[in-house]
């Protein structure tokens, strides 16, 4: 089974417990939540849906977005991705990753200390790569 490996500086630091997961973060300017749901299919990440609490600086919804009273949800029209890169920085809020009912900060998943800067690359990998 393919899952998402979290790679820092070429080393697998952790794997998510399922092929389906979400990435959440707080927009740095608007301070509203953004969430993207992914699934691994055919060895690539496919975005299933995106959700934002409100629109603003760089936060436009995609075609077909639906407002449910507290936010906008839509299916982004982007091709499957080979990898996803997320940058941890002392200047921005941490990401939160959720998979199989486990939600933790990206720093916790990847074993990165507070205050440092790191690029965490998510890549599809075999579940046996877990640490």
Q: Can you tell me about this structure?
A:
The protein is mainly beta and 131 residues long. Helices cover 4% and strands 49% of the residues. The chain contains one helix and eleven strands. The chain has one helix at residues 106-110, and strands at 2-8, 11-15, 20-26, 33-41, 44-52, 66-67, 72-74, 84-88, 96-99, 102-105, 118-126. It has a seven-stranded antiparallel sheet. The protein has a four-stranded antiparallel sheet with strand order 2-1-11-8. The longest helix has 5 residues, at 106-110. The protein is globular, with a radius of gyration of 15 Å. 19% of the residues are buried. The model has no long low-confidence stretch (mean pLDDT 89).
Mean pLDDT: 89
Distance between the termini: 16 Å
Question: Low-confidence spans: pLDDT under 50, at least 5 residues?
Answer: none
Helix-strand sequence? EEEEEEEEEEHE
The residue fraction in helices comes out at under 10%
Describe the oligomeric state of these chains in a short phrase: single chain
What structural class do the secondary elements suggest?
mainly beta
The helix count comes to: 1
What is the percentage of strand-forming residues? over 45%
Q: Shape, please?
A: globular
């Amino acid at each position: 089974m393919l899952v998402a490996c979290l790679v820092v500086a070429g080393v697998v630091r952790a794997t998510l417990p399922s092929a389906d997961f979400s990435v959440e973060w707080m927009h740095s300017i608007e301070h509203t939540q953004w969430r993207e749901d992914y699934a691994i299919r055919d060895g690539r990440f496919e975005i299933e849906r995106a959700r934002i609490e409100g629109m603003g600086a760089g936060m436009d919804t995609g075609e077909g977005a639906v407002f449910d009273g507290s936010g906008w949800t839509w299916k982004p029209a982007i091709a499957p991705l080979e990898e996803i890169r997320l940058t941890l920085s002392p200047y921005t809020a941490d990401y939160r990753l959720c998979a199989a009912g486990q939600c933790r900060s990206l720093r916790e998943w990847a074993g990165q200390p507070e205050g440092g800067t790191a690029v965490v690359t998510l890549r599809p990998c075999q579940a046996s790569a877990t640490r």
